Amino acid sequence: MQIVKKEGQEIVNLNSAVAIIPEWENQVLLIKHYRPSIGKCLLELPAGWTEKGESEEETALRELKEETGFLAQELEFMLSFFPSPGYTSEKLSVFIARNLKKVGETTEIEELVFIPQTQIRNLIQNKSIVDGKTLIGLMYYLDYKT
Q1: What is the pLDDT of residues 27-64, one digit of tens each?
Q2: How many contiguous H segments (helices) and E segments (strands) does the chain have?
Q3: How far is it, in rounded angstroms, from Cα 83 to Cα 122?
């Protein structure tokens, strides 16, 4: 992270980031993750920042494995967006991960949550999902799938 002044405004330069929608037997895999900034757990898509020299696809595969213990045989790009362009240069790309294979455990995340695809809309509507990247990714995914 680097703070720079551009056109009279302070900008936070961040690496690009990815979020992954893992499909597993007509379900989507989310993670329950404690966020100290708001003092509670959120349901989120697995996600993370790219490392130097790493492509977004490589980041998506690495983060999926680190956060869920799954590898994906297929990765499909879905969309990119700027989460908060008023103060940061961060770009976030969302991928769908398919043909998952369990290869290990994770110690990073409190809980893996498998959500039937038919229940995603209900979770959004009843405000069980409030994380921005997850909302955008899943809402686009619902539209993308139909």
Answers
A1: 999 999 899 999 999 999 999 999 999 999 999 999 99
A2: 3, 9
A3: 23
Token digits of residue 100 = 């998952």
Report the domain count for the chain.
1
12 lies in which domain range?
Answer: 2-145
In tens, the pLDDT along 113-129 reads 999 999 999 999 999 99
CATH number, residue 46: 3.90.79.10
What's the confidence (pLDDT) of residue 123? 96
Residue type, 42: L
Residue 13 has pLDDT above 80, yes or no: no
pTM of the model: 0.90
Amino acid, res. 78: M
Task: Report phi then psi at 119, rounded to 5.
Answer: -100, -5
Q: What is the CA radius of gyration of the chain?
A: 16
Helix (H) or strand (E) holding 116: strand 111-116
Backbone angles phi, psi at 126, to 5 degrees: -90, 10
Spatial contact of 41 and 115, defined as CB atoms under 8 Å apart: no
Structure tokens at 105: 């455990």
